[in-house]
Amino acid sequence: NPLRILDSKIPETQNILKNAPVLTDFLDEESQREFEQLLTYLDVQNISYTVNPRLVRGLDYYNKTVFEWVYPNLGAQATVCAGGRYDGLVEQLGGKPTPAIGFAMGVERLVELVKEQNQAKPDQKPDIYFVSIGEEARTLALDISNQLRKSNFSVQMHCGEGSLKNQIKRADKSRADIALILAEDEVSSQQITVKPLLSRGEQQNVAQSELLAALDALLKG
Question: 57: helix, coil or strand?
Answer without folding.
Answer: coil
